[in-house]
Amino acid sequence: MNEGKNIVELLNDSGFGVKSSRTLARELSFINTDELIARLTDLRREEEKGFDLLDFSALLNKTFDKIEDVVKQDRSANFSSPDRLEMFEDILGALRNNFAFVNDFVKAKDQKNFKKQVMFDIRNRMDALDNNQEIDPATRDAQAGELIKASRLSDREYYDALGIFNKKEKIYNDNLRNFNLHTFTNKLLKELEDLRKVSLELALSPESSQAIQKFIADLNQDIAKFGLEVEQSRRELDALCQRYGIERRYSRDNKETKTTELEPVALAPEKTEEPQEEVEVTKEAEEPVVEPQVKQTAPQLGGIEAVVAQLRELNPGVAVRYVGKSYNDLFSGKIEASVPYSELKLPAGYYYVHGGISNRFTNSKEQFMLEVGKLNIRELNEDVPTQSNVTEMNPVNNTEELNAENSLENREEMVADTLENTSPVEELESRSLFSRAKDAISRLRQDGRVPANQKLKVNRNRTAIISPYAKSLLTFGGITGVALGVLGTPIVAAAGVGAGLGVAAQALYNKLAKGVKVNELESLKGTKYSDDPTQAPVIVAAYHNAFQELMDIYKKRKSGKLEKTKTPMEVAQEVNAIEQGVNTSLNDFREEMRNTLDMDEETLGAGRVG
Amino acid sequence: MKVDSVITLENGVNCLLLEKVNYNNDNYFMAVVLDESEEPSEEYVVLKEIIENNENYVMRVIDENILAELVKLFTKTFGEMVEDLPDFEDAS
């Protein structure tokens, strides 16, 4: 391209500059510069919006108030343990305290604005008095005296309020400057969970208890969603800057630094200009993300490419590549990774779905549902990498993992085998068997055996005979499958599905394992993501794995392969038997010893000299 | 239609109905598709019950918003189902 100068100018106009001319020159061969500039501009706009803590705080505080009201208005609550009630209040206070700096700032701003309005009202009245030609001099003087007095007072109060506001604003900005989204939201979520637990220990009516749990679930959703869009924009912008060798030239500190630091000033009633004031408050950018050495992978800018770049950045040591279109209509594209998709660390806003990842439940402008296939070392060796495919492969040492066969791969290879004789020759030449198999599976998955959104007549309906345990297991498998595959949203998973499924799955395990010797299921013990609702689908994924383990226990138990544990009665009987055995042995031993001693005495007596 | 029954659809597919919930005045079923041997496969579907002219129809649901709500309801019902499970020995 020969528009190097133009692209630099365009970048400058958009607040960016060139960091690596070689990188940019190389990448320009593959991109549409207009698209690049447009995307960069969009992302910059999103980044500059920042975290809207003011609205977020207002929203959460409103719900905190509702929760408190529910408890206060429920007479049953008086029968709660005083300790629990106190703890409930403390946690609620702690939750509110997270927003103390926001609330103080908002109150100070409201107060300042109110005082300003009063000040202006008095000035307007003074103007009206001055313009009133019909009033007699004595009355004018009397009213003027009162207004001057009021004006001096309102000026003082306004400047006092302004001083407080400036101080609170500085504190607010300082907090924003050090703001870390994940730390902040994780703390909120932990306290919210504490609140949930203690609320369950209060003596509340069922309606109140249900209402509180609903409020807490709503709060969970709000917190999980907060800031995801901004953070995603930042990360994508970081990745694009790295990839195209450009850098931000605009200040990421932006508007928040406009704090006036105005001290209360001496009264100056005659002063006509407005007091120096405020301040458009924004936020501080987070630390820039360390960039990966992202190379060009496809000629299209941004979008899935940017996601791939972020995945590489977040998963050092893992090979990730963009494949292209997915044959499954559910997905907007396909990528491959050298580890199972559920082990990928995901960019902000992304979550796991069945067979891939998605950010569809965020507010992101670019919403994807990406199929993630397994990138296999064998395939890498078989296929000649094209320029648009594998470009950056980090060594993956865990060959055992890569070679581990799972059921999907088996099915893929089986399908591939069946396709081998029917596929066109040129396809055989251009694509590996493995890739074709995966495509075939994707096509099979497209609708399943029951087509979607199509009214099908039920021709026959018959009663099935199914054991309650088998039915429970199948239901569990169905819920986790649907939750993981289609639902996927961290919000719903965290709020409504994950916890409920966990409790029920544990209960199912307890009943299945009762009376037999089985190991505990790790997958039911929660995950390391328990405190992070954005990763909640991982929890659902764990339960999905638990389904298979529970099914194994069921099958083994059904076939009598599991050793039974002893009931307390059986244990007691055994102990008795052992004790009786010991007693019998002791008695026999004593008897034997006694006989021996008698014999010795007799022997000795016989030899005794009389 | 009721749970614990196998329905045969007009395309010949058999589905075992596992769980039923009502959402917005419609009945929905969690079902597992049966294979040719009438064994449960790995394919689960959520079916909406449609009754027209005294005939039963179903429609597979894929709308994520509806599924999100249904999964919550299914989870709740599943919890109750597990609670009511008898001891394993008694159930066999």
Query: What would the principal axes of the Cα set say about the shape of chain B?
Result: globular
How would you classify the helix and strand content of chain B by structural class?
alpha+beta
% residues in beta strands of chain B:
over 45%
| Termini separation of chain A | 133 Å
> Average pLDDT of chain A, to the nearest integer?
70
* Percent helix range of chain B: 25-40%
| Secondary-structure element string of chain A | HEHHHHHHHHHEHEEEEEHHHHHEHHHH
- Strand line-up across the major sheet of chain B: 1-2-3-4-5
Judged by helices, strands and strand pairing, the structural class of chain A is mainly alpha
Indicate the proportion of strand residues of chain A. 5-15%
Radius of gyration of chain B: 14 Å
Poorly predicted parts of chain A: 253-301, 377-446, 487-495, 527-534, 599-610
Largest sheet of chain A: 5 strands, mixed
Helix fraction bin of chain A:
55-70%
| Alpha-carbon distance between the two ends of chain B | 26 Å
* N-to-C series of helices and strands of chain B: EEEEEHH
**Helix segment tally of chain A:** 20
| Whole-angstrom Rg of chain A | 36 Å
For the residues shown, what is the average pLDDT of chain B?
89
What's the total helix number of chain B? Answer: 2
Give the largest interface pair and sizes: A-B, 52 and 56 residues
Layout of strands and helices, then pairs:
The complex is a heterodimer of chains A (610) and B (92).
Chain A: H1 4-13, E1 16-18, H2 21-28, H3 33-49, H4 53-73, H5 82-97, H6 100-131, H7 137-177, H8 181-200, H9 206-225, H10 228-244, E2 246-248, H11 303-314, E3 320-324, E4 333-337, E5 351-353, E6 356-358, E7 369-374, H12 377-382, H13 399-403, H14 407-419, H15 425-430, H16 433-445, E8 456-463, H17 468-487, H18 490-513, H19 536-558, H20 568-606
Parallel strand pairs in A: 4-7
Antiparallel strand pairs in A: 1-2, 3-4, 5-6, 6-7
Chain B: E1 5-9, E2 14-23, E3 26-34, E4 40-52, E5 55-60, H1 64-83, H2 88-91
Antiparallel strand pairs in B: 1-2, 2-3, 3-4, 4-5
